Each structure stands twice: as structure tokens, then as C-alpha cells.
Write the C-alpha cells for this entry.
Amino acid sequence: MVTLRDRLGRLRAAGEIKTGKSTRRMVDEICMRPLFPGEEQVQQTLYGTCYFREIAFPATYIHGSGPLAELLPCRGSDLVLPAGDPGLAAFVPAEALFVDIETTGLSGGTGTLVILIGMCWYREGKFFVRQYFLTDPAREKAMLIHAGEMLERFSGLVTFNGRTFDLPLLRTRQILAGLPQAAPEHHLDLLFCARRLWKGRLTSCSLKTLEQEVLELWRTDDIPGAEIPGIYFNYLRRGETERLRAVFEHNVQDLLSMVRLLAVVAQAVAGSPPHPADHFALGRLYAGQGAWEKAIESYRKAAACGSLQVAANALLHLSLLYKRRGRWPEAAGIWAQMARAGWGGPFPFLELAKYYEHREKNYRAALAMTEYLLYMQSRPGQASGQLHPAALLCRRERLRRKAAGSFSPCRSVIDEEE
Amino acid sequence: MSGLKQLLAKWRADARFTENVARWEEIPAEAGTYADFPAFLHPSLREGLQRRGITRLYSHQAEALAALSAGQHVVVVTPTASGKTLCYNLPVLNAILADPETRALYLFPTKALSQDQVAELRELAGNTGLEVGAFTYDGDTEPGLRQRVRLHGSIVVTNPDMLHSAILPHHTKWIKLFQNLKYVVIDEMHQYRGVFGSHVANVLRRLKRICRFYGSNPLFILCSATIANPGELACSLVEEPVVVIDKNGAPRAKKHFLIYNPPLVDRELGIRQSTMLAARFLARELLRHQVQTIIFTRSRIGVEVILTYLQQDAAQKLPGADSGIRGYRGGYLPRERRAIEAGLRSGEVRAVVSTNALELGIDIGQLEACIMTGYPGSIAATWQQAGRSGRRSGESLAVLITGNDPVNQFLAENPDYLLHSPPERALINPDNLVILTNHVRCAAFELPFAKGELFGRARVDEILEFLAEEQVLYESGGRYHWMEDAYPAEEISLRSASGENVVIIDISEPQPRVIGEVDRFSAPMLVHEEAIYIHGGEQYQVEKLDFEGKKAFVRRTDVNYYTDANLSVDLKVLDTFDTVEDGIIRAWGEVRLNALVSMFKKIRFHTHENIGAGPVDLPETEMHTTAFWLAFPQALLYGMKPSDLQAGLYGLANLSAQIASLFVMGDPRDLRAVCQVKAPFTGMPTIYLYDNIPGGVGYSREIFRIYKDIFAAARKIVANCSCRGGCPSCIGPQQGTGENAKQHTLRLLEVILHGNTA
């Protein structure tokens, strides 16, 4: 008689059943030799053993472009704008808990385990980092209870992509362990802030890119996140702890970068962003909030930043803002400046054509702009996505009629300034 | 007199017509049986029904409600258009009216059906003035809406694939649903047979496991077309006692059921007029008499061919006018489909040519006539398609046009099989080792397994240990934890036995697209390089087969040949589960198949000339499955020459695989045969019928049980076939089987049935 085990083995050999790659025997007993002598604590709880490691950094510790202490003066009110969350006005960054987790996979779903919950907070001159580690899946509940208690002690929580990754996963684990799922009063997701500030300037908003481009930090000896599940499986099955240390270290670095990133975000809003081009992103955020004066100020700073592309874009947005606010002379001045510099393609000419026609009633000048637009469009290789030829021809006809019907002096802002 | 009545009278009087009619069955009208609304039906639901003109229930609806209110699972088995949907919509809405937190999950085999159901639910709920959050949740659901469905969907309408790959693995996002789940509705239950059904049974095991975790214990409401074993199938899907409700209380009008066997074109070769031409003839007559008609074809290309014919005919009569004739099949846009459905209901569409896409419960109203071009594959499907015609009052017509192959000819010769024998048993094998193991993986991903925990009714300790050894699971603290950086549900398709299928990718257009898949075992045969792969009536040539990467790249082509791979199959018996010796020896057990394809031939259509060949360089494939076999002791074969025996066995294998698939309600591709003149295992001439599915899905066991019926049917076909030495309608074309193969096959069949050489 063929046993079930034989059949399973044969089906696997025939490739019908998928299994793990490695076939080495697992170790029966997980031997948890000290990983970080002097830094570890192992607590016995009702639900089993809970392991954590705790270390501290002085506030003066330099991580990337500055010391951790730069977090301390940051104000929650400066985070309202980048986070798009008015509730953060009451949030105190120096009293927040930074959280970052490591897992057995990125695919999500109920089969992904949280293996390390890293936390960082400030108290009395020091930044503390505590890392709860899942020494065995059977001890998950103990870990979650302890980590949950820590989370409840803080009213504010800071994560990087916590909104879609860390917090839902923790929540899933808590549900599976039959534990309540507490929600913090304030939650600041730094990925969300970073995207709103730097999406235009940076190729990506991964923590790695942000570290290099914003924090001026290059990690050495870091392990790629994708290797973490494998390292954990090897630890569980074979008791390999060598590379586990690197996972803890990776997590510490993440947490410190988050502390720094929050400071840089708040400073940017307070007026000193890491790069002058960031004023443009700030301008857009202010404009989105209806804070016109602040938006105008930011666009102006961006226009003076030295990068042609950023400056042109800033001027374009600034002019549209003036237009929307009815500040016509300032808007027209910018269009003229852009037209002269050749920035923004047909945009400034079209805006000027409308401006002369409807505001100044200077039909000849408007006609001149329209003719120029038609000329631009007729040139080969000219991208004319923004222009509808029929609309332009129609505009020309109308202006010709208007110009013939009423006298208007043939001058324009360009002539005037020249 | 209605157009249909006139036409039927004309046909009856026409001898040239009636000589092709193998059976003209009149199914008499039946009065309805009714019951009052039960006392527990919420007043506003009562009013809502009355507003729709429903003042009482059909008896089966009332029975279903009563059983459910007594806390019993039910399966409702009544024909098309008998008001089946109320059997589940009423209890579900009633429960939601009593407690708005109540949740229900509806499972339909296809997306189109889900959409239709939500529309109907909303209408019924609207009549009762009830705001019911009924949503479809499938691949088309917008990401923005998904969160809302998870939290606020009182009724979530989805399909088993979505439940398997998106809902269960993320159950923590669906707490509200699982905590408050009161009803699980499974419509079109008969679709869940074979591999698909075996998968779905395991998905339901997972669902129930998750429900237990959240403290809910839902009742199952299943609905099915007529099959022989609805109670058994429901029971093996739900793994709990299920009350069968199969007494239809809906009234029925008179129906004419015709089996139309197209005339023989070539008696010697056994070739008949094609079913498509016959369909054209019948449809033209029906349209001429203003009879709204649906024509079912077996393939997408069939839809296009018949549609073209009918439109040509219509254009001849009234050039330029809208013929009111439409095609309907997968691949049409949802908007086009909705328009056709509405047109059928309003009468604007006079005829529709459809694949079986319309066989399921999509609401198109009731038509007067239905034409089936070829046997739809099972008795259940035949009645479902036939049920598309038939109004509450007035007569209706259903015509089955029988095709050229043995199964169709068997039905033409034996109309009683179709009309009066119980329909097929739907078989599933949830404990197929491959399928079970794959779902244990998914279940472990969803919740750790406790040692000794049952999975449904299955003991899975050995599987859990095996998976732990293979480092998929990690055992600690008496529980098995998922320990892999993978999402197992993604690798497992419910529509095939193993996740190891070769996908077929069409690279004709700049944007490559997946058009199908074949199982790994059959891949060397069907999609070797240069093979002509036929899909949806289109020809494709395989340009490249990446066997390791499990991808075949094909390009559309149009050639006058097909390819046939030379396959040598080596079958080895590993284990015998049961064996009976009375003259012949019959048994079933586990086997290993090794298949090697070494070359292929190009064969011209129609003439079957061999017009070329090429080598195939692919590794041997191996499959473990179950098989049924029959061995013939030499004493019973007295006087048969080895070459005769060979020819007879070959014909018998050809025929019996096809006939057996008829009896076990299987897809003909899922059942194959091989024969060995001197089998190493039995030492005798032997034919094997095997489940063409790794691990087997229960066909072999069923064949072992009902082999007599199968081979008796086979004998009838061969004995009654008008051909001389064998033809496609019985044992296969002569050039494949050899001269007189028919006689030798017949002799073997006598041996099987009577144990002697008669």
C-alpha cells in the first residue's frame, strides 16, 4: 500500500505541489544565544516570553545632515500642511513614538508575520530605540501585547508608509491574536509628506532615495529589505543568528532616518527647505489650502532658485495665481517676462492675448499675440498640444473685427518695457 | 394560431422533416403549486412582493424558507425560470430587515451572473423600500469602492476565484462580513463539479474555518440545475447535512422537445450534414414564422458562422433592414451584452446565437424556441439550455441537433437516455491530494493550523507535517505557522488541478495577451513548437515553447492543416484500490503516466492527408493520477489474432473514453484512454481510462461503479452505427483503427458485457 507521504513526495517530485526551496532539516530547539549582550531583555508573560532590545542615542548624535536633536523644536503646526491633516496642530513631535516594522514578506495578507517592531522616542536628552523581536511565532501574542502597551503610552505616532503597510499589518496580527486594535490619536505618515514635498524633484520617494537626496546619508553594510524574510526563516529553522543582527541594525537606521526626516519636513515648512526648488512644492501646497500670500511668497522664492525648469514652472503657477486673484498687472508682467525668456511655450502668448482682449481692450496687441501663436504653430516640430488651431483662427477673426471697429493704440507690454 | 403552432403543424405533416427527427417528445403543461407567505416574512417584504404582483409563493420557495428558518442548509433543484432566486433573496432580505448588521455572501461561477444578480436584488429591495448595500466584488470593482464594500456591503456578490485569491487571504479586512455572516448563497451549484468543484469545496472549507474564527456559523443556500445527485454534491461541498428541495411548484406550459439528427451525406464514411447547416435551416423556418429563437453553439466560432448564415438569409429577404439577429458570447463588451439582453426581453431582438454564456441564469425573459447545435455535454446543461425557451403560457419548442460524434449519435439512437433517465451525477473529489494540499497551504496562510485540526472533514496531519518538512510551514507551540515569503492563493488557479499550467500567450498584436492554458502534462502534445493550437475557432501557430518558464508564445495564422503529435504514453500501475474478477478483470487504482512526444505530423483538413512532419524535442512528462482498467484473460479472446486484438482495443479505447465522459459528466479532455496489448501489470490485453488530472478527481472510481452502463451504451453505438468498418460516429475513423476494427471492438464489448465470445 502506498502511503500518503509517498504520494505527496511523488507529487512534489513531479512538480505538482510547490514547496520551499531548501530541504535542510530544521533545528528542533531555537537557541536564543545573546544577540546583543547587555542590551536585551527577556520578559516572561502570561502568553509566553517577550524579547526586546533597547539602546539609546544622545540627542547630539549626527545622522546624515544633522543631529537628532533638531526634532525637538519642531512644531506640529508645521506638519499640517505637508500631511494635509489639520489635527496635527496639536501634535508634539518631541513626544511622539516612531514605529517601523520588519516582516516576512511584502505581499500582505494574513500569512505575513511581523517579526520586528522597532520604536523610537525622546526622553530627557536621549533618543531611545526599542525593538521587539518575534523569537518564535508561538510567542507572537506576548510580543503584540507588550508592543501594544508601548503604543498606547504615546498619543502621537510617526511612521513611514504606515498608513498602508505597518499599521494594517499590525492590525491584522492583533485581530488574529484576538487582541484589541488601538488607534493612536495622531498619526503622521512621513511617506505621504515626502511625496507631497518631493515627488516633483526626486525620482522616487523611497526611504533610500530620501536618505541620499534629502538627508545626505549613504548607508554602508545595509542589508536589502528583500533578504529579511529569508534571514528570519534561517534563524527559525537553523538557529542562524549571524545576519539577524543586520536586520536589527537596518531597523535602527530606518527609525533614525524617520526622526531626521520629520525634522527636515518641519523645517521646510518653517521656511528653510533642503533645496530651494522645494519652495515650488510648498507653493502648490499653500495654494491648495487657499493660503494665497504664502503661496505667492513660496513661488517667488522658487522662481529665484536658479533652476530654469523650476523657475519657469513657478512663474507659470504664480501668474495663474495672480490671475485668479484678479491681480492683473502682476500676472501680465510675469507673462511678458516668460514670453521674452521663451519659457512655457505658447502659454504666456495665449494668456497675453486673452489679457489684452478682455482686460485692456487692446485688440491690436491681442491680434499680434494671436498672429504670433499661429506662426508658432505653423513651424515644423512645434508641439502644439495646448493650442486648438480652430480656436485660434476664430480668435483672430474676432480680434480683426474688434480691431477694425474701434481704435486701440498698437502697443503692448513688451513694447512698453523695451 | 400562433406562428409556432403553425410551423409545428407543418413540420409534423412533412415526411422529409420527420424522417430526421429521432424523437418528438411532448412535455405536458403542469399547474403550479402554491403556498402562502410564511408568518415570519417581514411585512415590508410582503408588501414589496405584492407590489411586484406576487401574492403567494411557489411551494418550493416556501419549503426553502421553512427549512432555513429551522436552521437547515438547503439545496434547491428546480428548472430554469422557476423563481429560484427568491429562494435565497427572500430569507437574506428578511434577515437584513430583522437585523441590519446581517451579512450575506453570494457566489456565482461567473462575473456576468454576479452583475445580473445585484441588479435584481436592488430591484426587489427597492420595492420594499429597503436600502440594501448589495455590491459585486470582483476584478472589475474599482479600488475606491472596495473599502466601502468591505465595511458596508450587506450582500457581497462575488465568484469563488475572488473569494479564494482576494477575500479569504485578507480576511482581517473583512471582519464585519465574517463576524455577521448569516447566509452563503451558492447558485449554479452543478457547475461546481470535477476539478473546479473539488477546488471550490476546499475554498468553502477555508471559508468555514475563517467564519469559525470570527464566531459566525452561516447557513448555506445552494441552487442547482437538475442533476442526479444534488444532495450528495451539496453535502460534499458544505460537508454538513443539506435538505434537498426538488419539487418544483412553478407552473409550466406545454413544450415540444425534438431530437433532430441531420441526414447522412455519406453513409459509408458515416458523415452527416453539419449541425450548423441544420441550425441554419431550422432557424430560418422559425424566423419566417415570427418565433423568437435562441441558438446555442458549442464554440465562439460557431456563433460567428451561424450568425453570418442567418444574416445573409435575412438580407436576402429585406436588404438593408436590421435583421434583429444578434450574436452573444464571451469577448463581447458588457455594454453590448446588456443591450442584447434588453432587446431579447423587449422582443426587438428576434434571434440570438450564443455560446453557453447565456445558458446560466442571466435574465433574458423567456423565448419561444431554442436550438442546440450539438449535445451541450451533459443532461443538466441540455435541460438548462432547453429551459431558455418556455413561457408560463403558450407552447414552446426546444430542438437538439445531434452531431457526428459517438456521444451525439448515441443520444439520437437512444432519446430515452436524455429524456427519461436520471441525469448525471456531478462528481467532485475535494480530497484529491494535489488540490487538498494546495488549499491546506492557503488555509495555513490565513490562520495557523492547530495540531490535529480537521480541515473540513479531512485529516491533514500528514500534509501539515510534510509541508513543515518542506519548510513551507513552521511548527511551534502546537501550531503550524505559514513561513514563506509568498502568497499561495496567487499560484493556485481554481480552474485547473495544479498551478503548473503552461499559459498560452498570443503575440500577434503588439500587446501580448494570455488566451488560455494547458496542463503541463498535455503541453508537449498540444503546444510544442510549430503546433497549430486552435482556440475559440481561431488557428494559432506556436512560435516558441518555454517549457521551464511554462509559457507558449503563439501567433494567429490561417493554414489548411492541423497538427497531431505522436505521443507514446507509458502507464504504470502503482496501487490497486479495488478489483473484481468475474471473467474479465476490472479495477481502479493509482497510476503513473509517462508521456513522450518525439515528432508531430501536419494533417490536411477534410482529406486527412499527411503533408509534413517535424521533430519535437521536449522532456518526458509525468503524471500521477487514478485510472480504471479492464483486462481480458486470453481464454475469453479465443481465436482473435494479435492484429485484430490491437485494432479492437484501439477502437474500444477511443470510444469508451468519450462515452465514459458522458456518464461521469466530465469534460472530455479530463478523461483519456490508453490500451496495452500485453500490459506489464496485468499480463493481459488491457484498456485503461484515466483521469487526465494530477491526483485524479473521482472519474475512475465512478467508472468502476457504473462500467456496465458505460460499455452497454458503447455497444449500442457500435452495433447501431450504419458505417461499415468504423467511423467518427463510433470507434473513430477507419484509417486510425484499421479494417474491421468495428467487428473486433464489438467482440471485445460482448466479452465485457457477457464474459464470453457470444
About this structure: The mean pLDDT of chain B is 86. Chain B touches chain A through 53 residues (CB under 8 Å). Chain B has four domains: 3-27+252-420, 34-245, 433-491, 577-592+625-754.
